[in-house]
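Obj.: predict assembly geometry.
Materials: sequence records (below).
Method: joint structure prediction, all chains together.
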Amino acid sequence: MASLIDLANPTRFMRFSAVVLPWLAAIATLLIVVGLYLAWFEAPPDYQQGETIRIMFIHVPAAWLAMMFYSMMTLSALGTLVWRHPLADVAQKAAAPIGACFALICLVTGSLWGKPMWGTYWVWDARLTSMLVLLLVYLGLIALWRALDDPSRAARAVAILTLVGFVNVPIIKFSVDWWNTLHQPASVLRMGGPTIHPSMLWPLLILAVGFTLFALSLHMVAMRAEIMRRRVRTLTILEAERLDRLAAQGVPA
Amino acid sequence: MSGLLDHLGPHAGFILASYGAAGLVLIGLTLAILRDHAAQKRALDALERRGGRRRSGREGA
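Observations (raw structure tokens):
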């Protein structure tokens, strides 16, 4: 716990992330390459869905990551509002585009899987609609960050909206149980264990871990960029004040 | 290429389009984040060269 609190200091985070990032990215790349090999060359076609089951290997990790990043943003929102954690709103702002991209991948790949299996690219059923709502919430949060100039004001407004939007995450997860949907019920994260054969489950889990580490690497780089952006903003203001003082004293800059 | 399409069966286009779309989105996201990181680093270096000072050190940036 003490080490986590230590990392709350942006300078320590910059030092820590510089060391961890190359390893994280390397492990992510290795897992994705191994996972893709198993998914394409070892996993058999599904007895009902045939070769289209290969879409599952990117669709499912994308769906998990879209929800995971929103959950991370919710924790960061609590960090911003309750504990005023110095890195909380940095983490939240950096996570939004990554989560949005995985939500988009989930929707696009799901649509391309739906057409050959269901006969349609889209239906307004609970699972698909709630995932679309998640993408729209992500886009709304990104727009709100850009609409407000003051980072601390933007952080509080975004944090409140993020907490409100979190109600959608359990709806996505349990929509297939609560309503009759065209989407199949959970087959991996469910009570009673996975119902997928190990020859398909292992590539899926390896790819899920690989994509998670890849997304966390991107998140770390985006957080570093955001910390630097805030330092640039502060230094620019300080420089402008210094030039104003020099101008008032009649000294050339 | 035709061997791969034969192997993937009648829905090869949907499968390849899924992987292509996911690849494009992830490559675009990665490039955008890396470019932003590089731009902020350049801006910070330029400010520090002009005499800007941060409260903390430069470690890891």
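Conclusions so far: The mean pLDDT of chain A is 89.
To do: check interface contacts against the pulldown list.
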